[in-house]
Specification:
Elements (H helix, E strand, L loop, with lengths): L7 H12 L3 H14 L4 E7 L5 E6 L9 H4 L26 H7 L2 E7 L6 E7 L2 E8 L4 E7 L6 H6 L3 H18 L4 E6 L2 E5 L6 H16 L1 E3 L10 E6 L12 E5 L2 E3 L2 H10 L12 E6 L5 E2 L10 E2 L2 H21 L15 H26 L22 E6 L3 E6 L2 E6 H18 L5 E11 L2 H9 L1 H7 L2 E4 L4 E8 L8 H14 L8 H13 L9 H12 L14 E4 L1 H7 L4
Parallel strand pairs: 1-7, 11-13
Antiparallel strand pairs: 1-2, 2-6, 3-4, 3-6, 4-5, 7-8, 9-10, 10-13, 11-12, 14-15, 16-17, 17-18, 18-22, 19-21, 20-21
Helix pairs in contact: 1-4, 2-6, 6-7, 6-12, 7-10, 8-9, 11-15, 11-16, 12-14, 13-15, 14-15
Bound molecules: adenosine-5'-diphosphate and magnesium ion.
């Protein structure tokens, strides 16, 4: 084929693909425009995961009627004038590509009025072409509606996930910008239902309270850059104490000069600061805001502007790591303190105390877990691999409990160190299996049904595992959008824990999907339920409780592993002991 220059409509659709990957990218670009326009109040309305509609309304400066068409031209921007400006970008936008790209792959309607004009303008475009224009009366600001995204790019549409998943990505982006700009009120609704609203108080903690709830937000640790430490890199924000962690990095958020960025090196710097404090494969909640001279950072790396390059990268990473570490060390060395910040709605003191105690307890626990991981297993103590044929346990005599985590037991052939949590998981799992096999109900009704509100991702998990959750004993009934009525929970969870929390934790476990058994959905749900129902590390058990647990473990078919495939016990044989003591 001869070389040809692509026709403009093909070229623009290719370019659009770089900026607009999925509905959440549209929301991101429109939010950035509203923020650049100085809006104080920004509303995001989304229908069907943004595929049907994304509408962003702001009360910013608006666009002069004479420039509305220009705003949709590629490389048209009011934010840069010459190439020199590229060296100190202070706005979120600067490439003049977003509106052109969005318009190329959807139907767009924009109504806007500049603060300096009396009459606004409304413009409709289809596949990037203006199809209608008329004057409108409206308050200053801009409303842009993006309908039928990717209607003319079927290939892209095919790659999108379910509307709920897409809505989940949108929710993420909206909360990120709400964190970056706590002085703005930013709200999100999905299919007409309010999902999120930041209060616009100017305090990041108030936004975090909306996102994570009072218990988690109240436990977060502030990052300070001390003023007697003059530094060109200013780091602020919040990090979770080691006891609070999540299944993925979604809650590790970074902003550079108010721009949300994804940066593996920054995430790595933070994880290094947590080194050894978190359980394996768990991630903290962190909101890290970095401010530095705009000339020190290149934001023009990628069309989506979510990647940056620092001129002095090492210095930035070190500053971040130092401040995060300082926040963690400070909390570890100080006595438990109640948050010094005021609350919108203050939770009761006892809730706070309980939350704090939980935090302290688990903090101790993860340190212990770490210490144990550091001890190399002595010869002969390695647990049987998970794949080994299940062997029956001999009758064991419980000797005691160590670190509120392990049961020491003695058998005819040496010593057994039993992980109380893993062992209980195994016991509950087999109990559930045998009850299902016998056709016995696994469910226990709640005295009062509870309304449980779920975010879009949780809703997605509920829908995916609908039948299996039911089988395991959860009785859930849709209750308006974004909520369910919880009528019953698996019997192994009943009375152990707040039913709502139990459900949330099972959903988190399922979403993480790390269970090797996840190939079978019913087994995955049961394993997740047992994980929640089992006694935790950190719980003191009486001698009777330990004996009972060990008896029940002896009766299981695979006492050596938990339902997730991890070992429940370490066996130190009599010979191994003798060898260690140089007796043989
Ligand atoms: P960029 O943000 O990189 O300049 P965009 O394509 O996103 O490029 O927007 C083009 C121009 O349209 C902006 O430079 C700005 O002047 C104007 N604009 C877009 N959205 C808004 C808005 N919500 N309020 C005011 N002006 C806007
Ligand atoms: Mg823009």
């Amino acid at each position: 084929m001869p070389i040809r220059i692509l026709p403009p409509e093909v070229a623009s659709r290719i370019a659009a693909g770089e900026v607009v990957e999925r509905p959440a990218s549209v929301v991101k670009e429109l939010l950035e425009n509203a923020i650049d326009a100085g809006a104080r109040d920004i509303q995001v309305e989304v229908e069907e995961g943004g595929l049907r509609l994304i509408r962003v309304s702001d009360d910013g400066c608006g666009i002069p009627a004479g420039e509305v068409e220009l705003a949709f031209a590629r490389h048209a921007t009011s934010k840069l004038t010459d190439v020199d400006d590229l060296n100190h970008i202070v706005t979120l936008g600067f490439r003049g590509e977003a509106l052109a790209s969005i318009a190329a792959v959807s139907r767009v309607e924009m109504s806007t009025r500049s603060v300096e004009e009396e009459i606004g303008a409304q413009l409709s475009l289809e596949a990037g072409e203006v199809v209608r224009r008329r004057p409108v009366g409206r308050p200053p600001g801009t409303t842009i509606s993006v309908e039928n995204l990717f209607y003319n790019v079927p290939a892209r549409r095919k790659f999108l996930r379910s509307p709920l998943t897409e809505a989940g990505h949108i929710q993420e982006v909206v909360t990120y910008y709400a964190m970056a700009y706590p002085e703005r009120r930013i709200s999100l609704s999905h299919n007409g239902r309010p999902i999120f609203r930041s209060p616009g108080t100017g305090r990041l903690l108030d936004v975090l309270l909306e996102i994570h709830g009072p218990e988690t937000a109240g436990a977060l640790l502030p990052i300070h850059t001390f003023s007697d430490e003059p530094s060109p890199v200013i780091v602020s924000g919040y990090v979770s104490p080691p006891a609070i962690h999540r299944a993925d990095r979604r809650h590790m958020v970074f902003f550079v000069n108010g721009r949300w960025v994804r940066d593996k090196a920054l995430a790595y710097a933070v994880l290094q600061a947590y080194h050894a404090l978190l359980p394996a494969n768990r991630f903290p909640i962190t909101v890290v805001q970095i401010h530095l001279d705009p000339a020190e950072v290149d934001v023009n790396v990628h069309p989506t502007k979510t990647e940056v390059r620092f001129r002095a990268a090492g210095e930035v990473f070190r500053a971040v790591q130092r401040q995060v570490r300082a926040a963690l060390v400070q909390q570890a060395s100080s006595a438990p303190q109640f948050p010094a910040f005021g609350w919108g709605e203050r939770p009761s003191l006892s809730t706070e105390i309980a939350a704090r105690q939980q935090v302290l307890m688990s903090a101790g626990r993860s340190a212990v877990e770490h210490a144990l991981r550091l001890i190399p297993p002595a010869e002969g103590t390695a647990p049987k691999p998970a794949g080994a044929p299940p062997s029956r346990l001999p009758i064991l005599r419980v000797v005691g409990q160590v670190r509120q985590m392990y049961i020491i037991a003695e058998g005819p052939d040496g010593l057994y160190l039993i992980d109380q949590h893993a062992a209980h998981e195994r016991v509950l799992y087999e109990q559930m299996l045998s009850q299902t096999a016998a056709g016995a109900p696994l469910s226990q009704a709640l005295l009062e049904p509870l309304v449980v509100s779920v975010d879009l991702r949780q809703q997605d998990v509920i829908q995916t595992y609908d039948a299996e959750l039911r089988t395991a004993g959860f009785e859930l009934e849709p209750f308006g959008e974004g909520a369910y009525l919880l009528r019953a929970v698996p019997a192994v969870l009943a009375g152990r824990q707040d039913p709502r929390t139990a459900l949330y934790e099972v959903l988190e476990e399922l979403e993480r999907g790390e269970t090797p058994l996840a190939r079978r959905k019913d087994a995955a749900v049961m394993a997740a339920v047992c994980k929640r129902g089992a006694v935790k590390a950190g719980q003191t058990l009486s001698h009777e409780e330990m004996t009972e647990l060990v008896r029940r473990l002896e009766a299981t078919s695979s006492p050596q592993t938990c339902p997730h495939g991890r070992p429940t016990m370490i066996h130190l044989s009599a010979e191994a002991l003798a060898r260690q003591f140089l007796r043989s």
